[in-house]
Amino acid sequence: MNIPFSPPDISQAEIDSVVETLKSGWITTGPKTKEFENKISEYIGIKKTACLSSATAAMEMTLRLLDIGHGDEVIVPAYTYTASCSVIYHVGATPVMVDIQKSVPEMDYDLMEKSITENTKAIIVVDLAGIICDYGKVYDIVNRNESKFAVSEDNDIQKRLGRIAVIADSSHGFGAVRNGKKSGMHADFTCFSFHAVKNLTTAEGGAVTWKSIDGIDDEKIYKEYMNLSLHGQTKDALDKTKAGSWEYDIVYPAYKCNMTDIQASIGLEQLKRYPNMLDRRQEIIRKYDAAFKERDVKVLSHQSDRYCSSGHLYFIRPEGITEEQRNDIIVKLAELGIASNVHYKPLPMLTAYKNMGFDIVNYPNAYNYYKNEITLPLYSKLTDEQVEYIISGVISILKDYER
Ligand SMILES: *Cc1c(COP(=O)(O)O)cnc(C)c1O
């Protein structure tokens, strides 16, 4: 058997939809992208969504929307993908990295609170593996620290919020639910990824949604994202095709990270299939959970009476093994034809962040979580037979490492 780690689940419907878009005469941002934005809003139950070229772009444009830059600090977990943090550098702000909890890969909320200074403008919260974080705690903390917040008077959104902005990196969390609310309804701004390995894909792509802010028109925020992502141009390509409507203005020299209609046409078909795809992920998780329950292995809790994850990643953490043993297990799985992965090597262990002065010794929980973590294949196309094969492969390999 040869089981890849995370192939995209593309059906004939996506292929037909792309062909139709290609033949339609409109391939860049246009009607399909607007339709995809509306369908995402409807799916989540919020007012507006802006589709962009990636989650990275969505996070960076959100920081720009808030005028976060030089002299500002943004809090981010050490246990995440580089994009949650690199965007802070992109805008010229300073990342303040926080360790995770001992047994949960969510930021340590006490450390988060202690990291707040009068320069803190935002907290980027990561819904790892598709499990929505405890935003109740995050909001308690930002509200408690409101008096510390030094508002930038030039930015309407900062003024209206009057506190640290909460930005979710929910690249993994599209469709996840907590307390009856889907991802997109928890943070002030929520960023999703539709990259090829994510649950719902447009090959490359992303979106940002936000909770309505008192005194600020949702349309104004939407328009600002459009400006930011398309050169600061007052009319997009489609508006300009209207007869006689050639003239536009550039309001500031902005960026270029819009979504194309080709991508949106994939996303629209994926979205129709998405509830079934999510169900299949949970079904596989239940099989894995049942198989590893009696073993000396820690797994994430993807479901409880309060939440249901999007089932993006399945972590196993065999107890008592070293980093080297973990790497050996990954090689042995590969020899059985099972691709696995590690999520994540903590940011302070990567060259870019070491060069910025971060040191893993200051993030012991992140290191301990990482050292025995193995991510197993989990995707809607995985067959029952493959799941059984993975389970028996993992169990037979782990026998050699049991305490
Ligand atoms: C995939 C991923 C991103 C980046 O998503 P893109 O759409 O590729 O920009 C950001 N954060 C996390 C946690 C991710 O897994």
Automatic annotation (TrEMBL):
Q: Name one GO biological process term.
A: polysaccharide biosynthetic process
UniProt keyword terms in alphabetical order: Aminotransferase, Pyridoxal phosphate, Transferase
The record's section on SUPFAM superfamilies has: PLP-dependent transferases
Molecular function, one GO term: transaminase activity
Which positions bear N6-(pyridoxal phosphate)lysine?
198
Q: Name one Pfam family in it.
A: DegT_DnrJ_EryC1
Q: Which InterPro entries is this protein grouped with?
A: DegT/StrS_aminotransferase (IPR000653), PyrdxlP-dep_Trfase (IPR015424), PyrdxlP-dep_Trfase_major (IPR015421), PyrdxlP-dep_Trfase_small (IPR015422)
Catalytic residues at 198 (proton acceptor)
The molecule here is called DegT/DnrJ/EryC1/StrS family aminotransferase
